[in-house]
């Protein structure tokens, strides 16, 4: 059985940054990348809002650079998925791929949060080609264009309001005849002149020409089908944090996001730290995830110093 001082789970901006800092602190971190090496960012194309790249940077290039930087400082980055956990006592026990057990003095959970999708084949087909789950990431590409946002909660309203400052027209596709969002968010959306709410509608298909999104086919509650022409299709139906494996031992909120102690990365269990979107339901940006990865590594280092 292998024992490590610092185990990091997750290969996105938070995990890779934690590995960089933990390596430089001589913690000899081992990182398992999970199901999606590079994290959610790899589902987009060009990242234009990450500091240091005035012309933007390809998402996969950015994540590969972070990974290589961590490896250069000595991080042991491996392919594998955490399938079981026992955080009942230190060292913590994590099972990888159902068979390989790792003991860890400290654990950094950077397993991210997966955007919820409708499950349409056409949605998958045009992922990164007009279909997006992050208006802040991709909204800039739709300046003066027409977009649609699906959802009726606060997340969808926030996405629509953000996009309304860039796009010429924003459709909100709401499956009920009312919003689920907070009253103030509803009021803001309804006051915005370039947002049109399509009530009682479900998305049947995302339409495209093979190169990108051209429209959406909707099914109204009365049974009528109709198409709208759009250049972009945004999901605003929330995120599912990758915390389920650790929930029996850690405090989480009502949506499953891991709760941390104030500004720190410390969870409710000493020696376990959370970084990135698994704890962040507000910002969900690569730069904030990377920053929290730095914090988690520093917190883990301080924990080991004080505990040893």
Encode the helix/strand succession as letters.
Answer: EHEEEHEEEEEHEHEHEHEEEEEEEH
CATH topology of the largest domain: FAD/NAD(P)-binding domain
CATH class of the largest domain: Alpha Beta
Query: Spans of 5+ residues with little confidence (pLDDT < 50)?
Result: none
**CATH architectural grouping of the largest domain:** 3-Layer(bba) Sandwich
- Give the end-to-end Cα distance, rounded to a whole number of Å: 22 Å
Task: Tell me briefly what this model is.
This protein is an alpha/beta fold and 308 residues long. Helix content is 25%, strand content 29%.
Task: Describe the structure in your own words.
The protein has 308 residues and is an alpha/beta fold. The chain has two domains: 182 residues, FAD/NAD(P)-binding domain (3-Layer(bba) Sandwich); 119 residues, FAD/NAD(P)-binding domain (3-Layer(bba) Sandwich), CATH 3.50.50.60. The chain contains seven helices and 19 strands. The strands form five sheets. Strands 1, 2, 5, 6, 7, 8 and 19 form a seven-stranded mixed sheet that branches. Strands 10-17-11-12-13 form a five-stranded parallel sheet. A hairpin with a 5-residue loop joins strand 6 and strand 7. Helix 1 runs parallel beside helix 2, helix 1 runs parallel beside helix 7 and helix 5 packs parallel to helix 6.
